[in-house]
Specification:
The protein is mainly alpha-helical and about 230 residues long. The protein has two domains: about 10-15 and about 100-205, no CATH class; about 25-95, Orthogonal Bundle (Recoverin, domain 1). The protein contains ten helices and two strands; from the N terminus they run H-H-H-H-H-H-H-E-H-H-E-H. The protein has helices at about 10-25, 45-50, 75, 85-90, 105-110, 115-135, 145-165, 180-185, 185-190, 200-205, and strands at about 170-175, 195-200. It has a two-stranded antiparallel sheet. Helix 1 (about 10-25) crosses helix 5 (about 105-110) and helix 7 (about 145-165) packs across helix 10 (about 200-205). The two termini are about 20 Å apart.
Length: about 230
Amino acid sequence: MRVLHGSIALWALLAVGFAVAQEQGAAPATQKKTAAPGKPLQFDLDGFLKDHDKNGDGFLQRDELPPAYRAAFDRVDTNKDGKISREELAQGVAHLRPRRRPSDVIYMLVEMSEDDQESQREVQRAYEILRRLDRNKDGKIDADELKAGREHVANNRVDFIFKQLDTNKDGRISREEAKGHILANFAEIDSNRDGFIDRAELLKAAMEKPTAAPSGGERRTTPPPQPGER
């Protein structure tokens, strides 16, 4: 369970970017050219088959699919006969849709036209974050650099939380000082059961992997970052 998470604003932005990408690329290829007012265009199964069924046998072979879709062939070919029928295409069309990624938010920022200046600032900030992660300046971010960046973020967040909650400055957070999610999960974070949360305990909680709550949602035991936190 990772108890310290990125800002709510960032995750909201990611969600918006994902939704925009979904709307812009909902169908993998051929779409029906007409749709009821207010409804999105639908994927045209028959048109897709007609466009790509080169030998006219009513099925799609792997090499008949456009290169971008061939990696999904085995998932769509559910009966494993080496060809995709119209029925299999109808059931598996979702596999042919472009896979949206959180990093697509950058494209959203680039494409935004309402406030180019604000978008420019956010893209520049993302660029500066990536440059800081690239410690050896080779133009790439490897797993070790990503881990170091995660540790840096976690340490900064823990420092910020202690600055906010450790009111008597004794280097520990008591139950009386704790608030919000930290208070709600105090016993879990206080691993040595001494009635206080020290920095090492909070950092350990911050670095643990997320675990789904019993209801299927993600648990969080600390409040989201506050304004000014870096």
